[in-house]
Amino acid sequence: MRQYGAVVLAAGKGTRMKSNYCKVLHPVAGKPMLGYVLDAARGLDLDKICVVVGHQAEEVMRRFEASDVKFILQEPQLGTGHAVKQCSGLFEKFDGHILILCGDTPLITTEILSDLVRFHEDNSSRVTVLTTTLQVPFGYGRIIRDNNDCVSRIVEDRDASDPEKSINEINTGIYIIESNLLFDLLDKLRADNAQNEYYLTDVVSGANKLNVPVCGCHTADSSVVVGVNSRGDLADVNAMMWWRLRRQLMSDGVTLLDPNSFYPDFGITVGPDTVIYPNVMITGASSIGEDCVIDPSCLINDSKIGNRVKILLGSKLDKVEVEDDASIGPMAHLRPNAKIGRNARIGNFVEVKNTIVGAGTKAAHLTYLGDSQIGRDVNIGCGTITCNYDGEKKHRTIIEDRCFVGSDVQFVAPVRIGSGSVIGAGSTITKDVPPDSLAVARSKQKVFPLRLGQGSDSKNEDR
Ligand code: UD1
Ligand code: CA
Questions:
Q1: Ligand 2 being an ion, which residues bring their Cβ within 5 A of it?
Q2: Could you read off the pLDDT of 4-48 as tens digits, one per residue?
Q3: What are phi and psi of 154, to 5 degrees?
Q4: How is residue 66 annotated by DSSP?
Q5: Residues 6+ apart with CB under 8 A from 453
Q6: Nearest CA to ligand 1 atom 22
Q7: Residue 203, in any domain of the structure
Q8: In terms of domains, do 382 and 426 share one?
């Protein structure tokens, strides 16, 4: 078998995106486009992978630094042909074939690339272009075939005549070319076209001039080779990626009540028999266990959710951990570093941040728990607040196992409540409470008779 290397083009600014960010860094289902292309290439047995960077090169290199990837800088960016040419030094002694990929085709798969390699080998080809047919070929280079069904040239949309524009077979921007031939052809490129760029596509006519036939490998599945040039393309590709992920999750046993309105990031996992209601986003490095229910309008990011957990209507969870059988929401807000124990219940309008909530503990309504450690089987009454911030520093509240906290209690941190204690409703707790005690910290109730009809405001001052 021949040796293969890969060049991935990722230096362009992506002017049509109208963005301050480099095109290949734009995420599709939460993952930068370039990541998909690299992963598809990694699935092949390649000698080396070279990524051409230019626009925001440092950021791209930082994000994709890996032992199997070499970066080559293209500065300035004078077109796709110029981009590949920058890799000539790296492939100087390479006696193989180079797979050329674009960083802006995130739907590409290893399968289609191995089909292309097989086609290239079966035809003993030196230059192969991957093509497909599009109903609306606008924006793509068109494939011009000769009488032998070989590709005689590729004409860019902007340079095409009207009859050429009506051709539906397009260039996917993916090629395999014998290394030495490729760099010889690139040396001959000229920028005499509508964009004054060195077009990689011109190596096709260049090869023909040397009587090297160019094979066109046509794929019927045009969805995997879609390129992203604009925000509209990005939305289309995102939608296609979401469908791929939804289908996979459903085939793994997840119920999606309305798959169209479930938005998974690439790489999330969901266990079988979990039911996901409409309008749910699960993003980042999130994993959801088995048999969970996720109600409508929930957002779960970078979080680990156990089995049989219920996440009720309108809850937001960000960088948290929820153990088995817990119930969250409706309208709960779990912020970074919240850890909710087994069978615990976090109810409506409860916010939890940087807090461990023990197994079986309940905070059912309208509560803020920040920078705290709450033990097992604690009851936190409605309206309880941990006052964790003194204007300068954050302080911790510790409430040990089996405490009962009445409604509307404020814990002025730092403060510790010993196990088994009871805090009276409406208390403002500023000092530690030992175990098995009752603490009440509120002003005594006073009752005054109402002298109806004779009311004098001055007498009511101390009510
Ligand atoms: C290119 C092809 C077109 C094909 C289409 C498929 C050329 C001239 N045209 O057009 O035939 O149908 O892809 O999607 O090749 N890049 C660089 N350096 C540069 C310019 C671009 O690295 O100087 C990179 C971009 O970051 C991008 C890729 O090359 O990842 C393709 O560039 P783009 O400008 O999107 O080319 P298209 O116009 O889509
Ligand atoms: Ca493109």
A1: 104, 227, 229
A2: 999 999 999 899 999 999 999 999 999 999 999 999 999 998 999
A3: -120, 130
A4: -
A5: none
A6: 11
A7: yes
A8: yes
